Amino acid sequence: MLTIDQACDRAQTIVAHARTAGADAADAVFAADASLDVSVRLGKLEDVGRSEGSDLGLRVFVGRRSASVSTSDLSDDALRTLVDRAVAMAREAPEDEWAGLAPADRLMHGAPPLLDLDDQMTGAAPPTPQELRDLALAAEDAARAVPGVTNSEGGGASAGRSVWALATSTGFAGSYATTSYGVSASVLAGEGGGMQRDYAHHAARRREHLADPAAIGREAGARATARVGPGKLASGPMPVVFDPRVGASLLGHLTGAIGGAAIARRTSFLLEALGTRILPATLSVRDDPHRPHGLRSRPFDGEGLAVSPTAIVEDGMLETWLLDSAAARQLGLEPTGHAARGIGGAPGVTTGNLYLDGGRVPVETLLAEVGDGVYVTELIGQGVNGVTGDYSRGAAGFRIVGGELAGPVAEFTVAGNLQDMFLNMTAANDLVFRYGVNVPTLRIDGMTVAGG
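Structure tokens predicted for Metallopeptidase TldD-related protein:
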């Protein structure tokens, strides 16, 4: 795999070629990755997969017209053809008054922050297939050893390294590398048509931070056995408690509603919410792209702008939209450093390590205050309307009876409106930074539940 300097040189070279070929402006991304995945099932090796690849994406501007192209063929002839094709396409494209590169005076310059995203920079050797197999076996063995587990979908372990570079004709050039490690297990409990499946997984940037695979397996087994013999849930209004594993999706709906494209097109249920209260005053939503070895940390955004920790919601008040340059120009605002760039197409928006902060209630107290309700551990379907905020999703989980978790339930629907749900949210104090988006246990009062 290329070094980060070589990757940066590749991106800069293609931008220079585009300018020579007639583009008024251009940016390019170069991505290379290598990964190794091992899966086991019922104690035996099932598959070993290794993949390596490199891709380059080029975006060119001719006046207010633009075009994007990408390729995995990095030969000189292929790249010359790519540049010529991109410039020709841009000349024929419709004009877009908002398109363009990020403002040159906003580009990041100087040394990037040290985020400790690349394990190999510290001298760590990539794991061997045997080592990954042992991790996968340990996870599956522990899951299968949980009383009540009757079958296995397998255990897995993976390791990978990626290099990413961005260059623009306005003077930005940057690159960085990340490593990733993962362990998972998925098992079934019960018999016949009553079988229930669940899983557990963990991912980390550094191998030494990867969770004990046996603990991952035990978590998967415990989750599966707890779901055996689900009952039906009565319909009606009731408090709904979201397990952190599924509660994180609520932040996804929030960030989707405050992304620049949705605001510019006026297709967001939070269109008029900037500067107003959207969460209880005790809660905040924070984005930290500088979290050391974070799963979504990065030194700069997809347009070359510096990124920094941001309070998206502070003490319940919505403080900012998430804007790339095109949306910022359309709205008469400044880009916020949240641009996301893939190999093909124009930038979108994303966040770094996103989390909900401010929960102060112990989980036991939060449940006790519910009395009778439902604890959701799985969400099914995509029944969310980003324009109106209407929310309706299939779910499974556990009854809450007298403030304590009771038997499993399945085949019910939880519904409400996201604006009301956000305002009626109570957060527990069990926030753990384990994923790219993290929330504590969340209770939302006043939701509508439709039992099966």
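The CA atoms of residues 20 and 369 lie 67 Å apart.
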